[in-house]
Amino acid sequence: MPMSGLGLCCRPSANGDAVRQGVLDFLLMGGRHLDDAQIYSNQREVGMGVRQAVELGVPRSEIFLTTKIPPDRFGFEAASEWLSAALQELGLEYIDLVILHWAGTNELSPCSEPKACRQETWMALQRSRGKGQIRHLGVSNFGPRQMEELLALGGAPIEVNQIEYHPWVPSLHLETAQWCHEHGIAVTAYGSMGSSALSQQMLTQDSLRQIGDRHGKSSGQVLLRWTVQHNVSVIPGTGNPKHMAQNLGIFDFTLTGGEMAMLDHVPLEGRMLHFGHYPDLNP
């Protein structure tokens, strides 16, 4: 899984033909990691962008496409039906990574007991993995307890956990990422630059600007670099090719130990979380 990708959620350019063009632009400039989900309502257009890039010479084997199954599709039969529909909508023969989007259930869920729902879903998806329809399986917003419940099945390993991750997240998120690394589970960050609600608050920090000036980089690139130096992948979202190139351009500099320490020690009173997902909060 590439360390830097393109998030496909939650902005006007992640809809309709704009997202198809964005996917195509990103892949043609060398990006290879795409992060999607059913609830983003754009899988059809994302699949079109992937197929067009392949027609223009980008090897499908180099593209790492993630999508996510929401809790209202949890359950063995429901998850099996969801995968068939997702593959048809994307117009692809396989999906590189399928993630359980979060650990909860809702009134639309076909099953009602959260732990059993997650386990049934996992068993259905690992069967599809055995058929080659899915290459890898992961979770999002899960904590150690919830992940151990899936690992206890003794089947397919959890290969990725996607969580909100930036210097201002609560300690729980940092501890969850550490647990994942100790158990051989890759971590992907969403909200690395604050997303729409917190981006201005984060990117205008004087410390970030000062670090960026020393390296000839933007505040956003400093945040992304901080994340990858913690061995966490990033998936910033944009439809602007210039910003895509900037987000991919984080591998030609390294933050010093002092710079990392400065960003590692945000005071507790300064911690913030945009999306409100707390690992292990759901039953």
TrEMBL record:
Residues 23-265 form the NADP-dependent oxidoreductase domain. Gene3D superfamilies: NADP-dependent oxidoreductase domain. SUPFAM superfamilies: NAD(P)-linked oxidoreductase. This is NADP-dependent oxidoreductase domain-containing protein. The lineage of its organism: Eukaryota, Sar, Alveolata, Dinophyceae, Suessiales. PANTHER family: 2,5-DIKETO-D-GLUCONIC ACID REDUCTASE, NADP-DEPENDENT OXIDOREDUCTASE DOMAIN-CONTAINING PROTEIN. The keyword Oxidoreductase applies. Pfam families: Aldo_ket_red (PF00248). Substrate binds at H101. It comes from Polarella glacialis (Dinoflagellate). CDD domains: AKR_AKR1-5-like (cd19071).
